[in-house]
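[Meeting: bench + compute handoff]

Bench side (C.D.) handed over the final construct sequence. Compute side (W.E.) agreed to return the predicted structure before the next meeting so the bench team could plan truncations. Sequence as handed over:
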Amino acid sequence: MNALLRKIATRKGLTTAALGLALVVLAGCRQDMHDQPKFKPLAMNTFYPDDRSARPLLEGTVAREDERADQYFYTGKINGQPGTELPFPLTQEVLERGRERYNIYCSPCHSEIGDGNGMIVQRGFKRPPSYHTDRLRQAPIGHFFDVMTNGFGGMSEYKSQVSPADRWAIAAYIRALQLSQDATRADVPAGMEVSNTPPNMSALPGTSEIQLPPNQRPIQGQTREQTK
């Protein structure tokens, strides 16, 4: 009987020792990989004087393949003045893309015909000027690109929502809208017929985003040197 009790006591001692060793090992485990110091997006961080964890890009930083050497394509200006030409050839695809993007981003305020009476204007928002005034009919196309890029008056900038190529496509479509409301038969090229039936604009297919490499963006009517 005594021998049996001694065996049980020995086993209990070994079990206790094993549990103790396990506790020591577990206590030595660190949670650094789970609780490591890090910056949480948009969270306050007192390490920097401005208390922001998200840091701006260093001045002069240029994203790979985004050197923006073609200043006219990205600003719509030549020597500080709005340009008068598209930085790439005008095609049916460009106009279709411009119509699609215009109806998404611009028509809520400017309306689908560009008269400034869009749906949110009808709900009380400030009315923008009509594209069909003499002032905007005579404005260079670079003006519309610049306004979309930087905003103007009550309109905020759209450069974060609309790519540069799409801004140019929208500007080209605005020109088409202006022509559609103010064109005469004398504007029709010789040999082309004029239909009295309005075109079904909703039937135009959408297109994918226009992507033009910098070396394939010819500036009609301007030399490369004039854009710098």
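W.E. noted at the follow-up: Strands lie at 77-78, 81-82. C.D. will use this when planning the next construct.
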